[in-house]
Amino acid sequence: MKKDYYEILGVKKEAEAADIKKAYRSLAMRFHPDRVEEKEKKAAEEKFKEISEAYGVLSDPQKRQTYDQHGHSGIDQNYTSEDIFRGADFSSVFGEGGGGLDDLLGQFFGGSFGGGRRSRGPSRGRDIQYEVELTLLEAFTGMKKSVKVPRNEVCRDCNGNGAKGGAAIADCQTCGGRGQVMINSGYFRLAQTCPACRGQGRVIKESCPSCHGQGHNRVTRNIDVTFPPGLDNDSQMRVRGEGEVGPGGPGDLYLYIRVKDHPQFRRAKNDLEMDLLVSFVKATLGGEIEVPTLSEHVTMKLPAGTESGKVFRVKGKGMPDVHESGSFGNLYVRVMIDVPKKLSADQRRLLEEFAKASGEDTGGSFKDKIKKVFK
User: Fold this and answer.
1) Is-contact 196 172, C-beta < 8 A?
2) Terminus-to-terminus CA distance in the chain, angstroms?
3) Which stretches of 142-244 are DSSP H helices?
4) What is the mean pLDDT of the chain?
5) Are 267 and 285 in contact (CB under 8 A)?
6) 241 and 342 assigned to the same domain
7) Rounded to whole angstroms, how far apart are CA atoms 286 and 306?
8) Is residue 111 domain-shared with residue 144, that is, in the same domain?
9) Domain that holds residue 227
C-alpha cells in the first residue's frame, strides 16, 4: 500500500507549512537525480517522485485537509497525478527558479508545476485502481496473469479533443483561455476554476458524437501483469502507463492485492500455520510423519510422547519474502491427536490390556478416555 505522506517526509501530522517545506527541501536535495551517482539514479528518481507527491499534497491546504480526512482514497478520487502538483509552491523551495524542480517534475509527471502555473499542454490520463484476487498458492509461486481493466481511452474519432470532425475549438471567452477567473473578496483577489469551460480554457462548438464531447471512451483491456512471489493482502503494485489514456499520455495502474484464505494453511506475514492430525500411536511412540507444504511434502521427526497442541517449526517452508529474493518464512505445525472413532475387536482388546497394564480403569467410554489422555 501507499506510504503515509507525513511518514515519507518525516514530519508529524500537526507540522506547520514551514516545517513541511523544510523537510521536503532537505530530502529533495538528497535524492535529486542530478546529485547522485549513476548507479543510484533510478532509485533516487523513485524516491524523488515519492517525496514530491507527498509535498504536493501536504503543502496545499485543501489537498492536505482531504488527505487528513479520507487518506489516499480521497486524493486518488479527486485529483489526477498532475492535479496533485497544481498549486504547490515548488519554485520557492530552492529560491528563484526552483533549482530545476519544475522541469524535472514536468519530465516525470507531465505538465507545469512552478508556483501553481496552469499547464497549457495536454494532460495525461488519470491513474486508476483495481483489486486483484490471488490464491495463496499463486501468491507463493508468483505468476503472470491477464487482468481485465476497464478504463477511459482517447476517442479515436476526435483524437481526444471532443470536437466533431475536427471542428474548431475556441478559447473560452469567460476566462480568456486561462481556465481560471479572478473574483474580488474584500481586499483579496481569488482565482477560481472557470465555470464556463470547467478549467479547460477552451470551448467546443460541436461535440464529437462518438464520445459526446468527453474526448474519451470507456473500454476494457486485458493487461498482462507479472506478480512476484510473496504478495500479501497489504501489497500494492504500480503498472506504469496502464492507467487511463489522455491526450498527454497514459496514467498508471495501481493494483491492490487480496489473497484468498486457504483451507489448510493460515498466513501470518511470511509464516504459515497449520493443524496436522496424528494418530495417538504415532504421538505416543514417536517417529517420522509426512507434512504437506505449498511446494512439496516434507518428513518431520515426531518425538515420543508428543502431546496434542504441540507446535513444531519447519524452517524455510513458509511464504517467500516479496522484498528479499530467496528468503522464506517458516511453517508452524500444530499436532492434533486423531482419536479413532471406530475400533475393531482386536484393537479394543489390545488397548484395554494396555490400560490395565498402566493401572487405568477401563470402565466408561473408551473414546472419552483417549480424549482425556491426549487433550
Assistant:
1) yes
2) 42
3) none
4) 81
5) no
6) no
7) 7
8) no
9) 128-168+205-259
Element (H, E) at 348: helix 345-357
Record the cell numbers describing residue 289, joined without a space.
Answer: 510423519
DSSP H helices, 125-184, are: 136-141
Distance between CA 81 and CA 88 in Å, rounded? 13
Residue 193 located in a structural domain: no
Of 176 and 112, the one with more pLDDT = 176
**Contact residues for 97 (Cβ-Cβ < 8 A; gap 6+):** 91
CA contacts within 13 A on the Cβ side of 359: 0
Amino acid at 211: C
User: Do residue 153 and residue 103 come from a single domain?
Assistant: no
Note whether residue 55 is domain-resident.
Answer: yes
For residue 50, what are the CA distances in angstroms to 22, 46, 83, 112, 127?
Answer: 16, 6, 15, 18, 15
Residues 228 and 148 in one domain: yes
Highest mean pLDDT among 124-138, 241-255, 284-298: 284-298
Quickly state the pLDDT bin for 95 (edges 50, 70, 90).
Answer: very low
**CATH code of the domain covering residue 276:** 2.60.260.20
Nearest-angstrom CA–CA distance, 167 and 163: 5
Task: Give the C-alpha separation, 158 to 322, whole Å.
Answer: 44
pTM: 0.56
Asked if residues 224 and 100 have their Cβ atoms less than 8 Å apart, the reply is no
- pLDDT more than 90, % of the chain: 32
Q: Is residue 51 assigned to a domain? A: yes
- The answer to whether position 306 is within a domain reads yes
**Cβ(171)–Cβ(228) below 8 Å:** no
For residue 14, the 8-state DSSP code is T
Grid coordinates representing 146 are: 491477464
Domain count, the chain: 3
Query: Do the beta carbons of residue 194 and residue 175 sit within 8 Å?
Result: yes
Give the distance, in angstroms, between the CA of residue 262 and the centroid of all CA atoms in the same chain: 21
Residues near 302 by beta carbon (within 8 Å), at least 6 away in sequence: 278, 282, 283, 286, 287, 288, 289, 312, 335
Same domain, 9 and 99: yes
Contacts of 62 (CB under 8 A, 6+ apart): none
Cβ atoms of 335 and 309 within 8 Å: the answer is yes
In sequence order, the β-bridge partners of residue 336 are: 277
